[in-house]
Amino acid sequence: MYKMSGKIKYLHFYILIIMIISQAYLYSHVYRNFPDFAVTGERSFTIIAANLYSDGKYSFGERDSSNNLITTSWRTPVFPLMYYVIYTMVGVGETANEIVRIIFLLFNAATIYMVYRIGNIFNYYIGCTAALLAIFDLSSFFWANNYEYPDTMLAFLMTLFIYYIIKFIQVNNSYLYILLSSFFLGMAALTKPVAYLLSLAIVLFLLLYLYKMKRFNMREMSMCIILFMSFQVVLVGGWKIRNYYATGNSDITSAQGQHLLFYHAAYLKAYQDGISFTEATSGLHERYSTMAQREGLSIADASIYYSSTAKNIIICSLKDYLIVVFRRVPKLLLNSPPPEFLYSRAGRDELRKELKIKDFGDIGSTVPALKILWSNGDFKSFVFLWGFIKGHLMLIYLMSLLGIILMFKNKHDKWILFLMLIILVYFIGLSSPVSHDRFRAPIMPIFYFLSGYCVTCLMETVVLYTKKRIERCNG
Fold first, then answer.
1. What kind and span of H or E run contains 59?
2. pLDDT tens, 91-114?
3. pTM value?
4. Number of neighbours of residue 269 by Cβ within 10 angstroms
């Protein structure tokens, strides 16, 4: 790495100032104009937290014949417990929601900072570039304003996990780093269950890494694996045991079966039968939900039934399912919220009036809407903003691809590249069929890092080439 000048040396402070100012300004703007712009109406987490606060019961609100609340395993505990703690301080209401929103914005800022720390392990400029790219990702700010879903919290916890597992590999094979990475991965799994099977892939990765490095004896290898699995067993295993005794189903969440059948299997059916997703999921609901109700299955038992049915459907058409996964990857990676939240309330209302819609969810296709807005000179800025968001994402993915190639050529960084590819494939494979844009939140820090790696390597190549050319001219 070439020597930094005194001014560039404090680049990370300038980036920190940009982050604080931009996040504070956007929060102030959103709070003044439309504070609930990212809210979807999902209340399952807050219902569980409210019942825990009022009745001391982790319940979704269902009651038995004696009118007692029935314990649920519908949602994993980290997010409802966070809401519960806030309820004990300020009570149930909008104040609690606003506190959660502020906490999520702080999580988003902390994620950007940890992206810088991850990059800084390799090179100061990698960290600065990655953090700068993260700041201008407006989608992450949008997700942070949704106090109903914990995707921003999941992204923060996953970034901490990645940071400590990279420090273990790249800096120091310390048992402490293994423990911390395990703890944050376990907390991530109890925030959203999509992360809980990742630990198995990481264990296999660690076994391969420890074996190939040749500097670990059998005792040290065993200790590393045991320490990594410790928090997975305590946190995830403990929650599964709790679910078994409370509901009779040891799944990490009783929503697992519904998600598999009415989303993953439904997208597969839609592809195979050439129908819309709505038609496919309605058909599955009509067939299997009716059967579960007729049999009088509880939510936990219905989840087992749905999960088994979905797995059979997917396994019997595994090739088609993989096609569905690949086809929906672009939607997962490039889908983004419309930038209407950057306008004033009056400006947003005028924009919707121009498109003759009540909400952007009413738009069937984006391109015709953008053409209408472009033809109206007052809304060209909206088209530019949407283009900026999409262009920023595509630039990140292009630079990430180049970053993967450059890391592969550097033998010192191959293990980190292997780790990151495992995480990317895992989350994309599980999230792609549904393809909601917020589902990519936990993997965006990896893309920021890879982009920063690419930019820094190219920058250093240009500097070295320029120096050699100057030396040749002087010689």
1. strand 59-63
2. 998 899 999 999 999 999 999 999
3. 0.92
4. 21
